[in-house]
Amino acid sequence: MALILGIESSCDETAVAVIDGSASTLDARIVAQHIASQDAAHRPYGGVVPEIAARAHAEVIAPMVAETLADAGLTLAGIDAIAATAGPGLIGGVMVGLVTGKALAMASGKPLLAINHLEGHALSPRLADPDLAYPYLLLLVSGGHCQILEVRGLGDYRRLATTIDDALGEAFDKTAKVLGLGYPGGPAVERLARAGNPQAVPLPRPLAGTAEPHFSFAGLKSAVLRAHESGKYAQADLAASFQQAAIDCVVDRTARALASLEGSAPPPTALVVAGGVAANAALRGALEQVAARAGLALVAPPVKLCTDNAAMIGWAGAERFAAGFRDGLDVAARPRWPLDANAAPARGAGVKA
Ligand code: KG4
Ligand code: ZN
User: Fold this and answer.
1) Residue 210 above 50 pLDDT?
2) Are residues 111 and 143 in the same domain?
3) Among residues of the chain, what percentage have pLDDT more than 90?
4) Are residues 271 and 311 in the same domain?
5) In angstroms, rounded to a whole number, what is the distance separating the alpha carbons of residues 221 and 219?
6) DSSP state at residue 327
7) What CATH number has the domain bearing residue 58?
8) What pLDDT is stored for residue 1 in this prediction?
9) Is residue 241 scored above 90 in pLDDT?
10) What does the alpha-carbon distance between residue 219 and residue 235 come to, in Å, rounded to a whole number?
11) CA separation, residue 2 to residues 67, 119, 127, 176, 319 (Å)
């Protein structure tokens, strides 16, 4: 038995989970979990307000730890290690969760594991699918990140592509704002797109077909704004055409990354998609075809494990605990923390971690 308490507070979700690292099914691995969304608090501002987020985390996190332990039928004495997100993310929120984790570790004498939030997303498919083996090609698409990584092993990540401007989820959120669909926008855009014609609005596919491996969504977002302001197009057609253009970009970039791994040894065992935008059914459908063309299966965790949660942090903690990693109580909270520290910076301003 390796029971890990996972804590996540890097953006607008406060989450706590107890993970059993030695169990062999998803249901048995997640012993208990709680998640509190701050969507309602941020909705009036059309995006996450860091100060509001940090305060909200501080209010709910301690009672949430108590509730999650109670649900698991445990006290701290029964936990083997405490895993808390230490970055990257909104620093006020990260500090709330990390300091909570440190205090619990200090009080209980149990080891602390400082988890990279992106590693949580990157390993979440292994939590969901016990058969998923390293190495795999990971498309990580969330509100803050848009990357393609070769996941070679625990702590061994090679970044093949990143965005030179906006993340994919950010593009969905900004499109939703233009269309007046509210926050968070991804699910609303996807819903409206079902009623629209994806070919109705001519939109660009930035960087598609180029030799450069990276993503860009800023030009697409501006084109949606201009098309909307022209008054020529129905809302549903704008949503559907935006979603199609964004998916075309992702498909092109992912196929390029898969092609770049041809002949690599060992070859990837699967194409994996994770992060909040992996909840998008149209994107999943398109990626299934990309994977099939490369002779691979697409692995996508259940939607609840794609958006931010503490189960994925606890799971990354379980893998690290089993591998013998431990962090000191003086470990720093990090607003930026790239998974691949050796990746060359992508061109352009506003480069994301
Ligand atoms: O992983 P996540 O919960 O938080 C971050 O770490 O960023 O991702 C949230 C992002 C938001 O931008 C949200 O609009 C997007 O994921 N998202 C979606 C869908 N569900 C969530 N985007 C497109 N289609 C969806 N169904
Ligand atoms: Zn995330």
Assistant:
1) yes
2) no
3) 89
4) no
5) 5
6) B
7) 3.30.420.40
8) 67
9) yes
10) 19
11) 20, 19, 14, 42, 10
| CA-proximal residue: ligand 1, atom 16 (nearest) | 276
User: DSSP letters along 243-312, please?
Assistant: HHHHHHHHHHHHHHHHHHTTT-SSPPS-EEEESGGGG-HHHHHHHHHHHHHTT--EE---HHHHSS-SHH
Work out the number of other CB atoms within 10 angstroms of the CB of residue 295.
8
Q: At what angle do helices 235-260 and 186-193 cross, to 10 degrees?
A: 110
Q: Are residues 286 and 142 in the same domain?
A: yes
Instruction: Answer yes or no: do 149 and 289 share one domain.
Output: yes
Separation of alpha carbons 280 and 133, rounded Å: 24
pTM of the model: 0.93
Among the atoms of ligand 1, which is closest to the Cα of residue 12? 4
Q: Does residue 8 have its Cβ closer than 6 Å to ligand 1?
A: no
Q: Are residues 171 and 287 in the same domain?
A: yes
Query: What number is the average pLDDT over the span 3-20?
Result: 96
The label of the residue with tokens 């994925």 reads 312
Helix 168-178 to helix 218-230 angle, to the nearest 10 degrees? 10
Look up the domain containing 283 and give its range: 133-300
**Secondary structure letter of residue 220 according to DSSP:** H
| Ligand 1 in reach of 301 Cβ (< 6 A) | no
Q: CA 6 to CA 319: how far, in whole Å?
A: 12
The full length of the chain comes to 353
Question: What average pLDDT does the structure give for the chain?
Answer: 95
Whether residue 117 sits in one domain with residue 39: yes
pLDDT of 349 strictly over 50: no
Residue to mutate (ligand 1; options 118, 172, 189; most atoms within 8 A of CB)? 172
